[in-house]
Specification:
The chain has 352 residues and is mainly α. The chain has helices at 31-44, 56-63, 70-84, 101-112, 115-119, 122-130, 139-142, 144-153, 167-183, 226-234, 255-263, 266-277, 283-309, 312-340; strands spanning 18-23, 49-54, 92-95, 159-162, 195-198. The structure holds tryptophan (TRP) and iron/sulfur cluster. Tryptophan is lined by residues 20-24, 55, 58, 148, 151-152, 160, 162, 166.
Length: 352
């Protein structure tokens, strides 16, 4: 079972390494989003100087045709973050488009990045093939990972916590930083190469047994009320070999048991394994226990979230304050970048 996120008082020492990560606003978060990123961020915020942002421009790269949900989706993600326990006093939480420096950095990178580098990023072709309903032969879509490089390098981040699927993007980021340094050398380098902080994430299947994912429609949301969680769990697939109540089952091939491993106590896991392998319990009972664990885990988050959802103004205030801090940090890097590229609006030494 995962431990509940703790909230020790923040210690801000200036020597802390910097962490940057982002999430596209695709709507309310599910347990897979939580375990795949947010749970990890909750621990990181106490260890590093963290910048976490909602990548609304990245959402536009695929969903440019209809932006009517963008604002609500952004708010929903912010609510999920705050409800889960990201603390705006401890880390900087903001919206990408509130920090226009990201766009300036992206533009400058676009000048020095060979097209081939972007065409070769594995997610480029994959996504174009998968999201067939959308025209992704756009300039912005090709530039997706380069915008991500700008996001990362503009904070001179030391670490980027991401899942395996994003490693290629961080690798590109390192190449862009090296190329920038080749053209515009400075000592020390203006854009240090960031490192991936690979998110350890347990296997989290959705109700159909496949990886939990919005596009599969198999998710349990952090915001799902208890009856919905219980109902969704009832429909979850189990060990396919356990057909009758009298058949014994194998928890090691059962997706329900994967959820037990994450959300149930050791005693409940033991009880389920025992009951399953001896046909002592039915799957309905076992799923009910898994639901208990999930409900117990998300209830306090839902309580915090509901309180904030009633006051969206406050949430936007939090994001605006975060953007102000982020802009300061980003602008400091941009000044070094402009100077290295001889773009500084200020007079050079010779001229003054
Ligand atoms: N591409 C990331 C994702 O889909 C989101 C993202 C955008 C990001 N910019 C970032 C992640 C910068 C880490 C750092 O999950
Ligand atoms: Fe899966 Fe539990 Fe049914 Fe066993 S009893 S097959 S672990 S749901």
């Amino acid at each position: 079972m995962i431990s509940s996120p703790t909230n020790p008082t923040a210690t801000s020492s200036p020597a802390r390494k910097r962490v940057l990560s982002g999430m596209r606003p695709t709507g309310k978060l599910h347990l897979g989003n939580y375990m795949g990123a947010l749970y990890n961020w909750l621990q990181l915020q106490h260890k590093y100087e963290c910048y976490f942002f909602i990548a609304d421009w990245h959402a536009l790269t695929t969903d440019y045709a209809d932006t009517s949900n963008l604002r609500q989706n952004t708010l929903d993600v912010a609510l999920d973050w705050l409800g889960a326990g990201l603390d705006p006093e401890t880390c900087v939480l903001f919206v990408q488009s509130h920090v226009p420096q990201h766009a300036e950095m992206h533009l400058l990178f676009s000048m020095i990045t060979p097209l081939g580098w972007l065409e070769r990023v594995p997610t480029y072709k994959e996504q174009q093939e998968n999201l067939t309903g959308k025209d992704l032969t756009t300039y912005g879509f090709l530039g997706y990972p380069l915008l991500q490089s700008a996001d990362i390098l503009i904070y001179q981040a030391d670490f980027v916590p991401v899942g395996q699927d994003q490693v290629a993007h961080v690798e590109l980021t390192r190449e862009v930083a090296r190329r920038f340094h080749q053209f515009y050398p400075a000592q020390p380098a203006v854009l240090p190469e960031p490192q991936v902080l690979l998110t350890p994430s347990p296997k989290l299947p959705g109700t159909d047994g496949r990886k939990m994912s919005k596009s599969y429609g198999n998710t349990i949301l952090l915001t799902d009320p208890e009856p919905i969680v219980r109902q969704k769990m009832k429909t979850m697939v189990t060990d396919p070999a356990r057909i009758r109540r009298t058949d014994v089952g194998n928890p090691d091939v059962c997706p329900v048991f994967d959820l037990h491993k994450v959300f149930s106590t050791a005693e409940t896991q033991q009880k389920s394994r025992e009951g399953c392998t001896t046909a002592g319990i039915g799957c309905i009972e076992c799923k009910g226990w898994a639901a208990d664990g999930i409900v117990r885990y998300i209830a306090p988050m839902q309580e915090r979230r509901a309180a904030l959802a009633a006051k969206p103004r406050q949430v936007w205030d939090v994001l605006h304050a975060g953007a102000e801090r982020a802009r300061k940090r980003a602008e400091a890097t941009m000044q070094q970048v402009r100077a290295a590229m001889h773009l500084s609006p200020t007079l050079s030494q010779k001229e003054s």
